[in-house]
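Predict fold of NUDIX hydrolase; 77 aa.
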Amino acid sequence: MPPQAAPAILPPETVPAIRAAATIILTRSGPKGPEVLMGMRGAAAVFMPSKYVFPGGAVDPGDADVALARPLPPGCA
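Predicted 3D structure, encoded as tokens:
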């Protein structure tokens, strides 16, 4: 395995702010084994164009206001 490059040390004012985000991984049993839901990013995307990704994205302040459709089953809270 090739050696990894040392991480760059950037001045604090140039480091981008951390953005709250969420990802979900959905799976199900399919006829040939497990299936996983993924999407493909657009070719014009700045970050990771034309790559397969799990659904998700930035967390908006209003996301916390959405009520659950039903209670979570035990073990999921």
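The two ends are 40 Å apart (CA to CA).
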